[in-house]
Amino acid sequence: GVTQSPTHLIKTRGQQVTLRCSSQSGHNTVSWYQQALGQGPQFIFQYYREEENGRGNFPPRFSGLQFPNDSSELNVNALELDDSALYLCASSSNEDTQYFGPGTRLTVL
Amino acid sequence: GESVGLHLPTLSVQEGDNSIINCAYSNSASDYFIWYKQESGKGPQFIIDIRSNMDKRQGQRVTVLLNKTVKHLSLQIAATQPGDSAVYFCAERAMDTGRRALTFGSGTRLQVQP
Lengths: 109, 114
Description:
The structure holds 2 protein chains of 2 kinds.
Chain A: E1 3-5, E2 8-11, E3 17-22, E4 29-35, E5 42-48, E6 51-55, E7 62-66, E8 71-76, E9 85-92, E10 99-100, E11 104-108
Parallel strand pairs in A: 2-11
Antiparallel strand pairs in A: 1-3, 3-8, 4-5, 4-9, 5-6, 7-8, 9-10, 9-11
Chain B: E1 10-14, E2 19-24, E3 30-38, E4 45-51, E5 56-58, E6 62-67, E7 72-77, E8 86-94, E9 103-104, E10 108-113
Parallel strand pairs in B: 1-10
Antiparallel strand pairs in B: 2-7, 3-4, 3-8, 5-6, 6-7, 8-9, 8-10
């Protein structure tokens, strides 16, 4: 399945953070979502074969990488209080179903 | 664990009853729809999906109905069990985006009373 690390993370405003995801084996597409408390996940961006394949309404300080070994990263610079959320990674193959990891809970103080 | 969906619409059912969770979607270009279940402290778990060329699909104890005319999706859970208690999200993918990004609804909390 899809795994994410760390489980929880606490940062202060202005810091930078890197979240990691390991996709399901054989999946070539990874998507990242932000889920604020009480809301549905919101699409941040998607990577297909190591290239960004679409982006949601998030500023450039949200960036990502996808590696050939089925792993990926979400980087957030200049953290703001509103960045506090559950960050979800989802992987998919050429089929449409996206399988989610357990998420990383980021708290910005 | 954390609480998902503090102010969500809530559906409360008795154990053994059937549950119906509804969802309205907005994009007429959406061609693919998924239902996810999310328990507190966990990521969304795939339940069932349906493409726009179908109007009904059945899984184990679950059925998804799609009405494209009124842009409505529903999830039916038969013989609801306490383990079904969670927040349920519908998600859509629009074929005009050129990518597989999903747009999620706001969710419904299902509470199963024993």
